[in-house]
Design brief:
The chain is elongated, with a radius of gyration of 56 Å. It starts with 11 loop residues before the first helix and ends in a 10-residue tail after the last strand. The longest helix is centred in the first third of the chain and has 51 residues. It has 4 domains: 79 residues, conserved putative lor/sdh protein from methanococcus maripaludis s2 fold; 56 residues, OB fold (Dihydrolipoamide Acetyltransferase, E2P), CATH 2.40.50; 105 residues; 80 residues, Efflux pump adaptor protein, beta barrel domain (Elongation Factor Tu (Ef-tu), domain 3). The protein has 419 residues and is α+β, with helices and mostly antiparallel strands. 30% of the residues lie in helices and 35% in strands. 21% of the residues are buried.
Length: 419
């Protein structure tokens, strides 16, 4: 079969034109690309990234102080229940709630008839003993006189018997000697009787003193100056002798000097000492008062890791009332000219503490520092920094040493200790 030439086929001419146009477009595109590649400037470069901004604070010298602030309630310096030493009826009670009394002032008078009777009996026993002594003294004097006469008669007869034998009968000498010995025995007996009477007097006087001492307890007096905070008895009430079950007469509190008991944390116990000044803030009065550390337990409570410490606060005007709430501030340390940095600038690691510093070229440096006094908002630096150094306080978590940054001075809030 004869095939017709391609030029004679329908559409052949149109196809040749399309192919020719495509070749022209491809050549033009390649030419443009080659021309573009041949330009001396090339494509515009990508813009460099901006330096990150970090918050900084200039290191400066400033006063730093560390204090401890704790809350407590006022207690009386002394607070006791006044009991009766002996049982009896309240004859008169002289005080009531709120009355101020002085040391030794009479609070109540008890009526104790039994003790009064015992005093009368002891007085009679003393009087009887004194009479017995007077009688025995007289008997002793009489016995001594008799003894002197008998002894003198015997001595004379015995002397005559020796110098002039036969002048005096032996019987007379023997009788005189017997009387002399009898009289001496009477003197000894009188002395013993007198000594016995004197012992009886001493015993009677001791018994009377004992009863009088007990009777003196019928006068119930204030053991110290204070204020009556409670009254438990009225006139005619029966008061038992002071035991754990006995009803007291009144309750007495010493309020001219008050106590504040605070639990001092173990970390600051070494800094607490007797006489340490304290500032006492009383919110109910809107005033501050001066106090001082008066005593402490000198041992750590195991469950709380604190040491019980008492602050004495003078209250001569009575404006402070036991039970009032107060805040106690103890100044633990003070630096008048400390090189201080904010606590936000510190990076505490194992064995060392560092800070990030922005130098004059705006590059980040790492400095190792030694710390001194620490407060809630700032820390004293004893080595590693100089005044004027810029320490990073914010935005430094991803910074690397040598990195260029844009420092921006910021102001940090002051942190106060929690009440």
């Amino acid at each position: 079969m004869n095939r017709a030439p391609l030029e004679r086929l329908p559409g052949y001419v149109h196809m040749r034109k399309s192919i020719s146009l495509a070749r022209v477009g491809l050549i033009a595109g390649v030419s443009v690309a080659v021309a573009g590649c041949g330009r001396s400037g090339g494509a515009p470069p990508v813009a460099a990234a901006a330096a990150p901004t970090v918050g900084v604070v200039a290191v400066a010298r400033e006063p730093l102080s560390r204090s401890l602030k704790l809350s407590a309630a006022f207690k009386p310096y002394q607070d006791i229940a006044v009991n009766a030493k002996v049982a009896g009826y309240v004859k008169t009670i002289y005080v009531d709630v709120g009355d101020k009394v002085k040391a030794g002032e009479l609070i109540a008078q008890l009526e104790i008839p039994e003790l009064q009777d015992q005093i009368n009996q002891e007085n009679a026993a003393v009087a009887q003993s004194q009479e017995n002594i007077t009688r025995d003294q007289d008997l002793l004097a009489q016995a001594q006189a008799n003894y002197q006469a008998s002894h003198l008669a015997y001595t004379r007869l015995d002397e005559v018997m020796k110098t002039q034998p036969g002048l005096v009968a032996q019987q007379e000498v023997d009788d005189a000697q017997g009387k002399d010995q009898g009289a001496r025995a009477q003197v000894d007996a009188a002395k013993a009787a007198l000594a016995g009477a004197q012992s009886e007097l001493a015993a009677a006087q001791a018994g009377r003193q004992r009863v009088q001492t007990m009777y003196a307890y019928s006068r119930i007096t204030a053991p110290f100056a204070g204020v009556i905070t409670q009254r438990f008895a009225d006139t005619g009430a029966m008061i038992q002798a002071g035991t754990t079950q006995a009803m007291p007469v009144v309750r007495l509190a010493q309020n001219d000097l008050l106590r504040l008991g605070i639990p001092v944390p173990e970390t600051v116990v070494p800094q607490i000492h007797i006489g340490m000044p304290a500032t006492v803030q009383v919110p109910a009065l809107g005033r501050d008062f001066d106090g001082k550390v008066a005593r402490f337990a000198d041992q750590i409570t195991l469950d709380t890791r604190t040491m019980y410490t008492e602050i004495d606060v003078p209250n001569p005007s009575g404006v402070l009332v036991p039970g009032m709430y107060a805040f106690v501030t103890l100044d633990l340390a003070d630096r008048a000219d400390a090189l201080a940095v904010p606590v936000q600038a510190l990076n505490r690691g194992t064995g060392q503490t560092t800070v990030l510093v922005v130098n004059a070229r705006h590059q980040v440096e790492t400095r190792t520092v030694t710390l001194g006094l620490e407060t809630p908002s700032a820390v004293e630096v004893t080595s590693g920094l100089q005044p004027g150094d810029l320490v990073v306080v914010s935005g430094g978590s991803l910074l690397q040493p040598g990195e260029t940054v844009t420092p921006k001075t910021v102001t940090l809030p002051t942190i106060t200790p929690a009440s």
